[in-house]
Design a protein that fits this description.
Radius of gyration: 41 Å
Number of strands: 11
Distance between the termini: 47 Å
Helix content: 40-55%
Largest sheet: 5 strands, mixed
Strand content: 15-25%
Strand order of the largest sheet: 6-8-9-11-10
Amino acid sequence: MLVSVAVVCVFLYFSNSLVKDLSRQERARMEIWADATKEIVNAGSSADASQGVNIDFLLSIIEGNTNIPVLLTDGNGNIIQQRNFRLPQPDAGDLLGNAENVDYLSRRLAELRLSDNVIRMDIAPDVTQYLYYEDSTLLRNLSLYPYIQLLVMIAFVVIVYFAVTSSKRAEQNKVWVGLSKETAHQLGTPISSLMAWVELMRDMDIDPDMVTEMDKDVKRLSTIASRFSKIGSRPQMEVADLNEVVCRSAGYMATRISSQIDLKVVASPDALPVNMSAPLMEWVMENLIKNAVDAMEGKGSITVTISARGGMAEIEVSDTGKGMTRRQRKSVFNPGYTTKKRGWGLGLTLARRIVGQYHGGRIFVSSSEPGVGSTFMIQLPMVR
């Protein structure tokens, strides 16, 4: 991008230099045109051969101007002659006697008086004329050329930026898929072994309560492995009531957080059918609740509110933790961002991927204030 900006600056510099040079050349041509007009007026009535040649030469200079619009006026501002203007009535017998043409040329003269494109001609001691001229079509086009270049280069830089960003995002997605599948694969073997050990412990008359709790944890590990495998591929979607999924996830977390944290769920009075992958949505909810627990440092309250608005099912997760600054809110979903001493900063990134890419919804920080708490919002389209 820096190289592109440098290239644009170089192009603009040379383009502007070219425009200025051409403008000076046109000014010089108009001064010659003015001198030729002045000489013809002052030629008098001489009829010798040399004078005739000079007049022909001067007339050729005047006739040679075919691309620069010119207006010649007397000292009082009355138009004497015009050249190379596209008049509204070009076929009128007396071009300067046509009212529409005169009105048009008067407007152009008023515009030219505001510019520097004027040359004073002292025809005689008491006779002064003024030559007004416009920039040629070539000069006007070249004046626009640097801006066209600038727009093209900006478009080029924007396209390159989005191409690089898309490529980077695609590469990150490949990393996510590879990491998820490898994690699920690595967890598979020890989980199968633990399941076998649990069954063996049941046959060995070990405390049933202890075996039951171990079995829950093993099944939990199996669920986690299943979630990772779903991240690596398109999960199977089924219509389910969002109230049931959220309450089930919150119920699981309620038994695994500090007793000093009050976890409350306010469910919607009506069923909220959503096309979803229930295991992945439970994962999202657990991530949000865990983050809320960490933000409160073991003491406070978490409120999960489920509602519907405008065809969207909404989940609000509010906590009374330490909150976030505006800068933290902008970075909280970035991969690797974490405020915890231990953590990879991937939970919210995965949550956004699950909600956005797999469920067509949104997850964002709806409000947060340092020292007061934060509220995360999830919006999911309901099945009609």
